[in-house]
Write the structure tokens for this entry.
Amino acid sequence: MTTLIKYLQARALWLALPPLWAVLLFTIFWLYALPLTSLFYALAVCLVLSLPWLLLDFYHWRRRHLQLQSLAPVLQVDFHQLPPPRSQIDADWTELFLSVCQHKQQQLEEARQSNKKLQDYFITWGHQIKTPIAALRLQLQGEPLEQVQEIEQYVEMLLTYLHLEDQASDYVIRQCDLDEVVQQAVRHFAPQFIRRRLRLNYQPFGQTALTDRRWLLFVLEQVLSNALKYTPDSTSDKENSISITLEAPLTLCVADTGIGIAPEDLARIFDQGYTGINGRAINYSAPSLPNAPNSPGSQKASGLGLYLCRCICANLGHRIWASSVPDQGTVIKIDLSNQERVWE
């Protein structure tokens, strides 16, 4: 019925002419007092003869309409796959369409090349700046060293984001010793654990997982970084801790005793750019967060770390999720048991 309505709308001008002619002839016959029987007979003959042509025209129009509709997904891949034009107007529309598509394709290619140059520049800059950062790490200790580590982490996040956007990340999937990955991540943050007197609960797992060691290490470091960021220093009244455990069948869990995540933020912490109530604080010793970590130099969150973790886990075929209770802590879980790699 919708197709018929569209056909009537497309042929409205032509379909309106026969009734107008009939009214005009009726008026002439009536003014000259001619017998109307002959007029009605002539109109009936014209209607009978026109009906097959009308049905044939509707058939061809509908066929053409469905053909063009079916080409929609094809034209997204190759816009030259247009049916041959049947009239000069069709030819003009086809030429105009191809011209617009070619111009748009040229613009997209220029934008892609420009973006690739910018991406290559940032990747080069990121790798170059890691050298002076490594030199600073050797010369500093205590809180200044932690600030340098934070800068290094943000540089690593930038490089990871660019690699993910490039869609050409080199994943090396093989059996990895989970204890080696965890121990390397813990060593990276060892100065913070010591200075802030945070207890680490970890016992070797003796397990392996089919994954990419480098990318899993990045995910684990991001999760540990968040756990440290939102966990207060230990005091004489309360000892805070971070636990790294392995649940069956193969789920890596990182739990902290920090300030937790507000229920309204929990479902969105893995979204790009989302920081939530805690992450929007300029520093965590602000009065609005009385139970927050004593880390006055900490800057507000970027909303990028957990988003990158979600993207990497999706590419590796893993699943990552969080649970939290405000003022009691947060648990991040990474299910490594799924061996399906979604990019294949």
User: Anything to note?
Assistant: The chain has twelve helices and seven strands. The longest strand covers residues 241-247.
